[in-house]
Structure formats: C-alpha cells, structure tokens
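U., I forgot to send this yesterday:
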Amino acid sequence: MQTCRSQNAIDFAKTLRDANVAADTLVKRLKKILELYKCPTIDFPCIRRSTLELLTWIVEYNNNNTEILLQCGVYEQLIEVAKTARKLESFKLFHSGVGVPTEPGTSCISSLATELRQQLQCSPNFKERLYF
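Result:
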C-alpha cells in the first residue's frame, strides 16, 4: 500500500509492467481479498481497509481505472463490504486481543466503501453497465 502511494502514476504503471501484472489482474486480486476476508480477525484486522485504500488510490491516480473496477465487479463487492463492516476494522493493531486506537479522523471501513462506490458511480458508463 505504501509502495503505491509513494509512487506517481508513471512509476506505478512501470512497476505493474515490470512485474508483468495487468491493471485488471491487480484489481481482480484485490477484489478476491475483499471476497475472502468477509469476517476479518485480529490477525489481519486491516486487510480490507488497506485493500479499499489501494483501490481508491488506483482510481484517483487514473480515472480510466474506474472502468476496470466496474468491469471486475468491485462495485458489487463494495456493497457487501459496507454491509459486513466490523468494529475491529477500525483498529490497525491489536495487543493481547485489545485494539490499539488509530489516528484521529480515520474513516470507518463502511465509509471508505461508500466513498469508493460514489466515485465509481461518477463513471460515464455506470448506468449503461447496469443493463448488461
């Protein structure tokens, strides 16, 4: 996550190309993480949060990626994430089973999912996509 944020769009595209990973492949893998971790545990409390932050970054760095997220079914998965948000996902770290508070102003995971859904809805092809 930090690797992506520390890069600009050109560096990120080059990193994907060097790793021989297409943007849609990365998005599909991130979507799979959201599917697999419906019930997060204290072992990986932020996996869905980090995934949502990365998907948001991918859209923000290149608006063309909005279409990739829509085609890969991320929008529908975001609805599920918002429904299954857990309080433990507000914590990035646990010590002896107790959540260590995150920095103030951190959005809850359902808010992150809703904000990304709203960004995807701004796609010019969003409404047409619903008819397929």
